TrEMBL record:
This is ABC transporter substrate-binding protein. It comes from Mycetocola zhujimingii. InterPro entries: Ferric-bd, SBP. Signal peptide: none annotated. Keywords: Signal. GO terms for molecular function: thiamine binding; thiamine pyrophosphate binding. SUPFAM superfamilies: Periplasmic binding protein-like II (SSF53850).
Amino acid sequence: MRPGVCRCSKGLNVNYRTVRSTSIAALLIGAVALTGCSADPEASSSEAPAESSGTLIVYTNSNSDGRGEWVTEKAAEAGIEIEIVGLGGADLANRIVAEKNNPVGDVVYGLNNMYFETLKEEEAIDGYEPSWAAEVDQESGDPDDGAFWPLVEQAIVTVYDTNTVSESDAPTETSDLWSDSSYEGRYEVNTVLGQATPQLILAGLLSQYVDEDGDLGISDEGWEEVEKYFANGSPAVEGTDLYARLTRGEVDYGVIPSSGITARDAEYGTKTGVISPKAGVPYVTEQISVIAGTSKQDQAEEFIDWFGSAEVQGEFAKEFSAYPVNETARAEALPEVIELIDSLKKQDIDYGFVRENISAWVEKTELEYLP
């Protein structure tokens, strides 16, 4: 396939932009962490087998809480042999770009639009229109070229256990956690900024303080908020789930993707409350695409057709409290999940601006504000 051309199932050729911003390049240059960490809630790992195995290699950052095992088992039942390779969001995007001249993976799913836009710019993914394309809102994916397609939507929320913290005592604004001294050390902060969720938290915070004359496009007030956020929080403990810390009284608040709430309430006996700030909360839409250069194009397309179908996404929604983009599958989502998503305002975030700056924001934060 010619560089910069998206090969779609309808035989259309779409020319991608060949000019990349220096900030995107900065995001993707540097060492790539190739080993998953069991303490990372977004990333567990297995090393990819040799290509000669014939197994479809599926890259994802959404394989925790049994998701990877479930997808692998269900795919096998459908006659599709896959192996999941999991990493945190930023590290996974870096890996795919690093391998683009000699790809190891065949399909990638779970990353949000921001990462997929970067993969598209880097010509590391191929366009393919899945059989279920008409059942999803393409605006939630890549409306211009169809290089990637949406699967699941979820909110990134700050939670607490109403068994130990009453709703009347919980703050109404997340910023109260680091601005009010009574909450000092009582909320968890994830300092592993190679993961998607911590980057989204950072992006959501800084997006409220955009200033074209400020440092990296952010006002001094915005950077002061970042400093307070990390300084007054309790760093996440490697290998320890947020909800374990909540039930032990180590912290009272923390951040989690909305799809993880139901399973944790069942496991830990908690009753989750959610802070709903006036500005809204970050939302992410997990996407799926074929990795450019795969030698298993037909298998990759078959997997995408299967995994994104209304039937499978409906089963996935019931099993993992997901909120499918597929409108037919959404009917199978848990009522409490639909109620939560419908109740939370989406924060207005310019993800194009974020994508251009996130690398520099992460670097500044790691150098200046993390211990």
